[in-house]
Amino acid sequence: MLTTMAATFTFLPQAQAATTSTPENVGAGAAIAALTADDAAIAAPIPADFAADFGYTPDVEAGLLVNPKGDCSSPIPLPAEFDTACKAHDLGYDLLRYAGSRGEPLGPWARQAVDAALARRMHDSCSGRADRTDRAGCEAMATVANIAVDLNSARQDYGVPVVEKFFGTEISGTDPTTMVPLFAIVGGGIVGLLVMLRLIITTLRRYRESVA
């Protein structure tokens, strides 16, 4: 069911995504294309004046080019395995902002690619968990996080991200008031999911102990 939900939220808004009539920033576009391709992420050609504008130089972490100051901005804690994927996502969003600041915003394809790479990498990071139950919980959190990110991007028509704060947590949107129902829905779903996963994990552990 979660996979179906993710597919619905990921692909449905794309048909409604905004289009750009202005020329796209070539440097930022090339960087995002490489950043979202796992086999070329380290070699992403970051624009020469990017560091001066954003106050940091992208660094390599676990085989990905990332924003070393980035993190998983979320109202709830996410698995530690997602950290590198989130930092790469932050770099991608800064590249979108870089292009926008020069009057050459990238089309919807760019933000969709950055979000899709985040989802893929979060799910991939869960494979390191040996316990099947723990891995399933990690996968579920990746799916829920992907839904929240994609809902917010769709709300902005996959345009240039704008930093907002919601209960002290940075999010990328345009109007903080519109994020309240979004996080209420997604947050409520996350809480329910965590409770359900906790019950499943507890039941499985008790079963294992009873047959041991």
TrEMBL record:
Keywords: Membrane, Signal, Transmembrane, Transmembrane helix. InterPro entries: PLipase_A2_dom_sf. GO terms for biological process: arachidonate secretion; phospholipid metabolic process. Residues 1-17 form the signal peptide. The keyword Signal applies. GO terms for molecular function: phospholipase A2 activity. The chain crosses the membrane at residues 179-201. SUPFAM superfamilies: Phospholipase A2, PLA2 (SSF48619). This is Phospholipase. It comes from Nocardia panacis.
